[in-house]
Amino acid sequence: MSTREKGGRFWLLAILALCLSAFVAVGCGSDSKDEASSTSASASSDSGDTIKVGILHSLSGTMAISEVSVRDSELLAIEEINKNGGVLGKQIEPVIEDGASDWPTFAEKAQKLISQDQVAATFGGWTSASRKAMLPVFEKNKALLYYPVQYEGLESSPYIFYTGATTNQQIIPALEYLQKEKGVKKLFLVGSDYVFPRTANKEIKAWAKANGMEVTGEEYAPLGSTEFSTIVNKVKASNSDAVFNTLNGDSNVAFFKQLDGAGLPSDKLPVVSVSIAEDEVRGIGADKVKGQIVAWNYYQTTPGAENEKFVKAYKAKYGKNRVTDDPIEAGYVGVKLWAAAVEKAGSTDPEKVKAASKGLTLDAPEGKVTVNGENQHITKTSRIGVINENGLIDTVWESDGPIEPDPYLKTYDWAKGLS
Amino acid sequence: MTTEPWLIDELLKIRGLEVDFDGFKAVDGVDVDVKVGEVHFLIGPNGAGKTTVIDCITGMTKPTGGSVLFDETELRGKKENEIVKLGVGRTFQTASVFEALTVEDNLDLAASFRMSTLKLLRRRRGTSETVTKALESTGLEDVRAKPAGTLSHGQKQWLEIGMLLCQDPKLLLLDEPVAGMSPEERTRTGELIRLVAESCTVLCVEHDMDFLRRFADRVTVMDEGKVIKANATVAEVQADERIQEIYIGKGRGIEEVSA
Amino acid sequence: MATAMKALGPTREQLLARVGFAVSALLLLVVAPAFLSDFRLGLLAKFLCFAIIAVGIAIAWGNGGMLVLGQGLFFGLGGYCMAMYLKLAEAGSVGLPDFMVWSGRETLPAFWKPFEHAWFAVGAAVIVPVIFAALLGTLIFRSRVRGPYFAILTQALAAAFVILLVGQQAITGGTNGLTNITTFFGLDLADPGDQRVLYFLAAISLGVVYLIARQLLNSRYGKLLIAVRDAEDRVRFLGYSATRVKVIAFATAAGMAGLAGALFVPIVGIISPAMLGIVPSIEMVVWVAVGGRASLAGAIAGAIAVNWAKSSLSEEFPSGWLYFQGALFIAVVAFAPMGIAGAVAWARDRILERTGRKQPGPTTTATAEGTS
Amino acid sequence: MEALLEQLVVGLSIGSILLLVALGLTFTFGQMGVINMAHGEFIMAGAYTTYVLQELLGAENITAAFLLSLPIALVVAGLMGLLLEATLIKRLYGRPLDTLLVTWGVALILQQVARDVFGAQNVAVASPAWLDGGTELFGIDLPYNRLFIFALAMAVTVAAWVVVGKLKQGRRMRAVMQNRQLAAASGIGTASVDRRTFFLGSGLAGIAGVALTQLGSVGPALGTYYIIDAFLVVIVGGLGQLRGAVIAAFSLGIINSLSEYWTQASLAKVIVFVCIIVFLQFRPQGIFATESRGLA
């Protein structure tokens, strides 16, 4: 080691020190004003002329495909509320952060929104993994998260409002539809390899066992996989009546194509999908999924004045070729529900908003929804639809009115021991 | 094959060595004997298989047949570093030194080759006697603190030989030690090799006839993977018309090669 | 001779280096905690974990020439070992972590059992990556797989590990990973004061790791590592086992990544496969490349600087950040292969030349083959 | 027995996709020693080429757009490769690890460009009607799109083999690969040979991209799904060895399909990887050794 190199270390450490000083300086600069008032996030958030809310979705990375549209609908809702005078007489100011399809980033940005920006509530997340990463952050800060996507259930955090469906509002109605309307006796389960499909399939198997349906197989493909030949061979060999499909967006094209290539088009072997909505169909191509069955709570075609207004406004803001779908609508509903609760409570304090949300009802694009005060999910009407050649979805079956959310499936005997 | 007295105490005994590169016989039934204490030259035109023989001795190339006996030990199948520890050192055609390290560190690493891993984890304090001596004999004292990458071509060759000196080998294999050197550098290299030869046996692959004349005790000549003359003196080689023809056949005379 | 050298004592430069270390320590241990908000300090703690990984990469790649593109794997092994213990500690009377319950598992898998003990988990967080790297390294290096082949194999390994973790949801937590970790040896992770304790733990660990790495690189072994990087055959023909030299560096880097993972879990409260895959693994190399691949201090500075830039830039321009990251990387690797450290050394040499305190000459640090 | 046969066919089908994505790499990686992580993004560029052509030519000309996109994608991806070679890679010969890192930066940027130009949303590429559906032979399903990809892979391989083995250009490429100095000394313009090799290798990635549009939808991350597999094929096959790549691609495909049949898709990937590590223990130089002692 020459003496010159020894000197090099000093200089490097000096640079490191400089970096750190800069870091400290920047940190202080941006934090100093927050430090003083950081005792109560909620107290300060409505003290100014505006009320800040966080929007936290993946704007980059693999999940951007889905989440960008939800961000758009949330921004639309905020714009509408602001046009009508805002909440508590103040304008809502969205603070947008990128979760970058990376779960710890979601946790980091959630913390940033709460402690730096002091938002009154946050709207965000898509994957279960991102929600699970954010959950402890919101619970420990006693701050609110509105989560807009259907998920696998078995969760009810006191600081999260779930505006997407839980299993008993989407998957179980779909199973009942398959059994009663399609006479399915043997069901094959195909999903992407992540938490939602695996947990959903566990529930499906429990339901099937109790209701005399046979599950003939259960296969998972890595996320993003386009190789389904082996799975299709297994489906074919199983002689199933239908397939329950929890594959993630882009894998669906490959799966449907290969089913078709193996002589199993949709009229021969019905496939029920719970992760394909209108926005995904746009990317897949309507011709490839035409005639496929899907299960959601809202479609762009859902009748009603509220929805007409919503679709019109969404297209006016973002372009004619854009479509609305279930998660997009649920994101929109989340913002509206929060605003309604804040008005009712007369405050943005999370505890007061929670209290005011109990039993709150709203005329949403999907119909009337009511917040369940106990588990903070909302009532939802289940709808089975078929994809048409325009990439839109026609409702073919609908539940009798909104279904009460039951994330832990407590009201179902067959689900005992699941949670 | 012979019972002549100077063949008895061979340090290195190669018998029937064969190397087959996908059907191409680079070395085909080669016998070489290197006696204790001598400076033995291995010569031949390009592609004769000389370097391959060296590679086989040191474990770099796995022979397909034959045997390599060093001090009664079979080297075939042994790993490179095991062979070194038995006392066989080698240089490469293009000097291979650690360019990012200082000259002294280069020599020190060579001298520490029997150290346990645990001891290696300690910092070097000062300079060992072996290294000091090697610095002296290679004349690299002035540049001891310089990175080896900044040395001249000749200096690198001497450093490499110096590194081997630090290891106190029984047999030293030199692969074209003076190729590309200026006349003065050659002379210095020769002196260095002579110094080395005092304490160990040398097997040297070289083209330079002048160099060969001055330092070789005995010579083995190879062509196209075969030995065509074994254990000859320099005079015998120069007198042998067959050897002249081989070199001329390859387009250059034996003296020309040294140019 | 030896005594003569020793008698000189530390040179002026060595003294300066020590002052630099002390100043950095002061900044990290006193100044930063005094002035940064809890949120920023939490971020800095995370970056310090990353800096620990970077030190390991500087050893294996910068000095040993082994481009490790799968450090996420070792980071993950360490993180999961620690998280398994923390999950079990929290599971309490149920005895099963939450995700196992909702994945339908009724009993604890056998390999989880030892992680009920804190000492086992802490030890395993470092030792498991080390053993794994040593085994894998021996297999790979023994068959003389190196350079790009080695890089791609480690990358494939990280990818395979992620797929494995995701596929075994019931015992690994699947894509979600292990989340909702709220306590750490009695510390309440929601409490800012306790988070500070973790920050100090990370800062001190980084200091210790740095000193270990420096000792390693200054020893004969460190020289040998550089020798293997530049002329592996020569090392072998000096009687050393090049495989062993490389395995030690590879395993050390893995152990450091494992330690970083173990610290990361309580600081961030989550470990998931998304942080171990190909992209995060390459990002780890990016930090080191930007900082200066062969320099320990450079690697640390790179890890902190790049992550800090990412955190603040991505707040402003989500998609712009990716362009910036890509461009930064191209610029650094193609045009300034020694990164910040190289630029600093170059600038210092120029200044010293100007002021006449140093003879002009070739700089050793400004080339890709430079030293520590 | 039938299941086994079925899986062998699946394996051949996976293998032909692997071969197609890896073929370009046997040139850029195998012959030039350049580890181009942006190879996946050249594949993506080929796929988007098909999409753009379909948009331009309209719904009634799907077949024409698809067939036309094969040569156009070759040129588009090839030109991108050429640009990359001329601006960055040229500076990095002899530093394979650095090419890996630099081209990864390029890959990041290209992905983001695709995201900004075409949207984060995947885009749909329609299939020509003659590629929909399938036929049955001995009770085994043979989807037309799979047959097409298999045939395409074979055709491209043969074409590449002819170029490398029979044409003057190919002989020059091999000469440069084996001994750069000697080739330069014998009057071969190594720089222009490098450019051509890179154009060809990158162009082949473009063709692979066109083929992939027939399997799934097209998105910015398309290339990332294939890049590692492609490199593994080249490593297992042996550097710069076409026949090695062919054997490696099909072997990996069959191992994958068989292990997926007996276990699960996720485990299959891990099994394939373990097989590769074990294989490299015995043949670190790949199925076929290179004549050059270069790179490693």
Walk me through what this model shows.
The complex is a heterotetramer of chains A (419), B (259), C (372) and D (296). Chain A has 2 domains: 39-165 and 303-380, Response regulator (Rossmann fold, 3-Layer(aba) Sandwich); 168-302 and 384-415, Rossmann fold. Helices cover 46% and strands 17% of the residues of chain A. Chain A is built from 14 helices and 14 strands. Chain A has helices spanning 3-37, 41-45, 64-83, 103-115, 128-141, 167-182, 195-210, 229-238, 251-261, 278-284, 286-289, 305-318, 326-345, 350-357; strands at 50-57, 91-98, 122-124, 145-147, 160-162, 186-192, 214-221, 242-246, 271-273, 293-296, 361-364, 367-370, 383-387, 393-398. In chain A, α4 packs parallel to α5 and α6 packs across α7. The N and C termini of chain A lie far apart (62 Å). The relative contact order of chain A is 0.13. Chain B has 259 residues and is α/β, with parallel strands linked by helices. Chain B has a single domain, classed as Rossmann fold. Chain B is built from 10 helices and 10 strands. Chain C has a domain at 36-275. Chain C is built from 16 helices and 2 strands. Chain C has a two-stranded antiparallel ribbon with strand order 1-2. Chains A and C meet through α1, α4, α5 and α7 of A and α2, α3, α7, α14 and α15 of C.
Oligomer: heterotetramer
Main β-sheet of chain A: number of strands, strand sense, barrel status?
7 strands, mixed
Distance between the termini of chain C: 26 Å
Order of secondary-structure elements of chain C: HHHHHHHHEEHHHHHHHH
Major β-sheet profile of chain C: 2 strands, antiparallel
Question: Biggest sheet of chain A, strands in spatial order?
Answer: 7-6-8-9-10-13-14
Uncertain runs of chain C = 1-8, 360-372
> Order of SSEs of chain A, N→C?
HHEHEHEHEEHEHEHEHEHHEHHHEEEE
User: Remind me, CATH topology of the largest domain in chain A?
Assistant: Rossmann fold
CATH superfamily of the largest domain in chain A: Response regulator
| Average residue-wise pLDDT of chain A | 86
Count of β-strands of chain A: 14
